[in-house]
Amino acid sequence: MAILIPTVALSLGALSAKEQPTEHTDATWQSQQHAASPLTSGIIPAPALVSCRYLPGLLGLGARVELTWSLPQGYTLSEAQVHASTSGVGSVLAPLTGFSMTQNTVISSGNYVTTVPVNLLGGLLGLGSELELSVVVSRHGWTTQNPRIARANPGLVGGLGGSCRLI
User: Fold this and answer.
1) Average pLDDT score over residue span 45-53
2) Residues with Cβ < 8 Å from 10, sequence gap 6 or more?
3) What sign results for the dihedral spanned by CA atoms 150, 153, 158, 161?
4) DSSP state of 23
5) Shortest CA distance to 42 belongs to which of 141, 149, 146?
6) Cα gap 72→69, rounded to integer Å
C-alpha cells in the first residue's frame, strides 16, 4: 500500500501541472561581445555578345537580328533569355513574350547564334526606330545586371541600310 500512495500523489501532481498555463516572460539576453561579418550577394555574369547582324529579309518581310554570343562558365542555355525594347526615353529591356530561346538558337564555332524576328512594322516601314536586344542569364530568381546591348536599326523602307551594332 505504501507504493500506491506516492504513485497516486505523483499522478495527481502531473494532472494539476497540466491545467495551469505557462506564465509569459520578458526575459532577454545581452552580451558585451559583438560579431561582424561581411554580407555579399552573388553576381550573375552577363553573357558575352560577340557580334550582331541585321538581316532584312525580302522587302522587310522576315527581317531578323542574329546575335552571336557565349554563356558565362557554369551556365546553360536553359538559363538564358533574350530581352528587348525599342530605344527611346523610358524604354526598358524586358523578356520577349512567346520567344523560344532553344528553338531560335544554334551553336556555331563554339558560340551560340540566336535569331530574333524583328517587328514586322519596323521591318517594312523603316521608321527609324531601333530595337535593343540583350542576352541575360537568370538563376534562383536573380538576373544579369547591366548586360551588353545590341542595337538594330531596320533602315529605310524594306530594310535598305539596316544595321546592327553592339553598344
Assistant:
1) 96
2) none
3) negative
4) P
5) 141
6) 10
C-alpha to C-alpha distance for 146 and 152, rounded to whole angstroms? 18
CB 66 within 8 A of CB 121: no
| Cα–Cα distance, 51 to 77 (Å, whole number) | 18
Alpha helices in the chain (DSSP H): 4-19, 120-125
Lowest pLDDT segment from 48-52, 60-64, 110-114: 60-64
pLDDT of residue 121: 40
Structural domains of the chain, with CATH: 48-166 (2.60.40)
Predicted local distance difference test score (pLDDT) of residue 124: 43
- CB-CB contact of 133 with 117 (8 Å): no
